[in-house]
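Attaching the record inline, Q. Sequence:
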Amino acid sequence: MSKILYVEDEPFLAKIVKESLETRGYEICHTMDGTFAAREFQNFKPDLCILDVMLPGKDGFTIAQEIRRIDADIPIIFLTAKDQQEDLLTGFKVGGNDYLKKPFSMEELIVRVENLINLTVGKEKKMHGSYELGSFMFFPGKLSLTCGEKVVKLSHKENEIVKLFAQNINGSIDRQLILETVWGNDSIFNSRTLDVYIRKLRKIFSDDAAVQIITLKSIGYHFIVE
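Structure, as predicted:
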């Protein structure tokens, strides 16, 4: 289920847009005050943002700039009652991907939302690659694992370990190879640290019993995806 942050201070319009998007299967976080939009973005972690331009607290352009500092790739659609070329140009300059003038049809908004989300997913797979690990999707370029609506952010070393496993699905991988690839050497300290990382990754993957990291004594690990 894709998630959308929607910032709009007109209650009637917001209700219509929110309910229409929810009937299409989107999860919506709606806020009316631009002051809290960036905080909601960080907490909600949406796949797309719909921002009204004229808002109390902070306008949509300012919010977009704050969001772009957090995530340079998130799709942003601006909604505005204005019809000025200057506002259109400003919207794209601050990182907007699309622009709709009020009043607009819900059908048009939904088509634009779907297009941007599909393009973003396609771009993510093309640029960063992705791996299907049971019910998990692994995006090494974004250092993240997703399982349904759950998103797990990985540290750099966790990401590199999962990448090695993802490249050796249902195969064995030498423990020394992991140590030398991720840490640069197989010292006792790094070996013990690897044990900690493996325990943490096992806990993460425990959400899907089909994904297992099996220890091969004195050899390494067998990464199973049934």
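The longest strand covers residues 211-216. The longest helix spans residues 106-128.

More tomorrow.
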